[in-house]
Amino acid sequence: xxxxxxxxxxxxxxxxxxxxxxxxxxxxxxxxxxxxxxxxxxxxxxxxxxxxxxxxxxxxxxxxxxxxxxxxxxxxxxxxxxxxxxxxxxxxxxxxxxxxxxxxxxxxxxxxxxxxxxxxxxxxxxxxxxxxxxxxxxxxxxxxxxxxxxxxxxxxxxxxxxxxxxxxxxxxxxxxxxxxxxxxxxxxxxxxxxxxxxxxxxxxxxxxxxxxxxxxxxxxxxxxxxxxxxxxxxxxxxxxxxxxxxxxxxxxxxxxxxxxxxxxxxxxxxxxxxxxxxxxxxxxxxxxxxxxxxxxxxxxxxxxxxxxxxxxxxxxxxxxxxxxxxxx
Length: 328
Ligand SMILES: O=C(O)C(=O)C[C@]1(C(=O)O)C=C[C@@H](O)C=C1
Hints:
29% of the residues lie in helices and 30% in strands. By secondary structure, it is of the alpha+beta class. The chain has three domains: 1-97 and 193-205, Periplasmic binding protein-like II (D-Maltodextrin-Binding Protein, domain 2, 3-Layer(aba) Sandwich); 99-187, Periplasmic binding protein-like II (D-Maltodextrin-Binding Protein, domain 2, 3-Layer(aba) Sandwich); 207-328, ACT domain (Alpha-Beta Plaits, 2-Layer Sandwich). Helix 2 (47-55) runs parallel beside helix 3 (75-82) and helix 8 packs antiparallel against helix 9 (271-283). Prephenic acid (PRE) is lined by residues 19, 24-26, 65, 68, 74, 97, 118, 120-121, 143-144, 171, 195. Residues 19, 24-26, 65, 68, 74, 97, 118, 120-121, 143-144, 171, 195 line the site of prephenic acid.
C-alpha cells in the first residue's frame, strides 16, 4: 500500500485514525502498515470515532480490530461498517495478543482490588484473574493503554488513589512506555491469541487479486421466508466459495431482524465469488460489498472441480453457443 498520495499536486503523508492512546495493539497493527516516520498517526477514543474520521475526511484510513481468536467479531467495527456512507477494507493485519498486569510503581499484587481493562482484554484474561485474584472488580476501559496513561499521569502527580482502579491489563510493551511496574506477565488465558485488524478506506480501486484473498460483505435476508438463510448460504456453497466468518448482528429497527456479516474466501474478480455475489443480489434485499483484499496468512482457497475461473468461462461460452444455435 502506498503511504503518500497527491493532494493539490503536493505529496502529503497518509493520515491513519486508530484506537489510542499510544501503545495499543491497534497501533502495533498500524506499524505493520505504515511507519510513524512516513504517515500521520491520529489516535482516537474508540473504533467508531476512528471509522468516522475517514468518513469525515479527517483521516485517509482507519486501522481497527475486526476479529479475535477469543471473542470473535469486534461488534463496534462490524456495526460501524454495516451502516453509514460506504467504506471498504483494503488490507488485513494479524497481531499476537498477550497481556501484562501492571500498576504504578509501589503497588504490589496483594494491593490489587480493581483492575481497569478493555472488555476484550478482560475476557482474554478471565481464567487467570479468577485463579490469582478471585473477586477482583473489572473497571472497563476504552482501550488497552487508556488506563496505563491514567496510571502514569496520576503517578507523576503523586497519587493514584483517586483513579478508581489499582492496576491495568496492558500490552507488554506499554509497561515501559508508561513507566509502570509489571505485577504479573503473560496473564492471557490463550497463549496463541491473535487479533485481526483491517485497514479501512473510501471505495475506489480494489486491491488486485493475489490468489489468497478475502471478501467481506453485509447481507440482509428476505423477511418471513422459510429457508432464507439456507438459500443465502447456498449462493456460496454451489459456487465452491468457503466462508471463514459469518455472524449475525441486529439491524436495530425491530426485534428479530438481523444482518449477516460475512468473510468469504476469494476475490470479487474470481468468477465463483462474482457469481455468488450476483446470487446474493438476486435473493437478498440488501448486500453491502465491504471489499476484497489479500489474506494476511496468504492461505489460498481449495478450488473444487467445476468452480475454477476457466470452468465458469467455459460454461458461459457453452451457453452462448446454445443460445446462438451452435451447440451440438
Ligand atoms: O488495540 C487495542 O489495544 C485495544 O484495546 C483493542 C482490542 C480489541 O478491540 O479487540 C485489540 C486487541 C485485543 O484483542 C483487545 C482489545
